[in-house]
Design brief:
The protein has 83 residues and is mainly α. Helices cover 45% and strands 5% of the residues. It has three helices and two strands, in the order ααββα. α1 (9-16) packs across α2 (20-29). It is globular and about 30 Å long.
C-alpha cells in the first residue's frame, strides 16, 4: 500500500467522532493494526477504510459477547472501545 488516501490520527479521530488520544490508545491495544497504517511511530498515517472496518469489527465482536448469557455471580463482559 502507498500513502494515498491516508489520514493522521487527529484527522481519523475527527472523522469517526473520537479524540486523537482514543485513536492512539486503539493503536497501542492493537484494535487498529499495522495493516491499517502506513509507516510507523508518531508520524504513521491511517488508512481510514481499513481502520474503520477493524474498529467496527472489534465493536461488533464485543457487542456479540455482551449479548451472551451471563452466569450467576458474573457481571458479564465489559465493552472497551470507548476511551
Amino acid at each position: 500500500m502507498n500513502a494515498g488516501n491516508t489520514l493522521s490520527n487527529g484527522e481519523f479521530a475527527k472523522l469517526i467522532g473520537v479524540s486523537p488520544g482514543c485513536v492512539s490508545q486503539w493503536i497501542a491495544e492493537g484494535k487498529i493494526g499495522p495493516d491499517a497504517m502506513f509507516g510507523t511511530g508518531h508520524r504513521a498515517l491511517i488508512y481510514p477504510e481499513v481502520a474503520r472496518q477493524r474498529t467496527l469489527t472489534t465493536a461488533s465482536d464485543q457487542l456479540d459477547a455482551a449479548a451472551a448469557p451471563v452466569t450467576a455471580g458474573s457481571r458479564g463482559p465489559q465493552l472497551s472501545l470507548a476511551c
